[in-house]
UniProtKB/TrEMBL annotation:
Its main location: cytoplasm. Residues 12-150 form the CheW-like domain. The keyword RNA-binding does not apply. This is Chemotaxis protein CheW. It comes from the Bacteria.
Length: 150
């Protein structure tokens, strides 16, 4: 098991980075089933109800979480960059709405430093650390912890 400098949990080997406002976050790529543009997802999901948080995806009701609301950043801004990340967490399929997808990064555990104190709707337990990738850094989050109350 890899040890991080945060001491809480090991970072994933690979992360999907996404944007919420001006912040970039990374989640374990192994949790990601698919990534969809929001417009295409909304069109394909027969009954998309963000207020109720449910989408009908291929005949299956899938909970949808607006990550801007979850992180207390206000309502989602729907544009061409808005995406839905479909995740598999503990055998459940869930979707999260994000402002955009950034990149996929391989994580070097030795380059993960403690994350700054959580703010907004994010809690310290949600943080894995701060991954550095070239000239920028990405806040690595434990998406299963973030969505545990969803």
């Amino acid at each position: 098991m890899k040890k991080t400098t945060t001491g809480k949990r090991p970072p994933p080997d690979e992360v999907l980075a996404f944007m919420l406002g001006n912040e970039e976050y990374g989640i374990d790529m192994q949790r990601v089933q698919e990534i969809r543009g929001f417009a295409a997802f909304a069109q394909e999901a027969n009954a998309l109800d963000l207020d109720g948080g449910i989408a009908n995806m291929r005949g299956v009701s899938v909970p949808i979480v607006d990550m801007r609301k979850r992180f207390a950043l206000g309502d989602a801004v729907f544009d061409d960059s808005t995406s839905v990340i479909v995740l598999s967490i503990d055998g459940r399929t869930m979707g999260v709405v994000v402002d955009g997808i950034s990149d996929v990064h391989r994580v070097d555990a030795g380059r993960v430093i403690p994350a700054p104190r959580a703010r907004g709707g994010l809690k310290n337990d949600h943080l894995i650390g701060l991954g550095t990738f070239g000239p920028h850094s990405v806040t690595l989050i434990a998406i299963d912890e973030v969505l545990a109350v969803a």
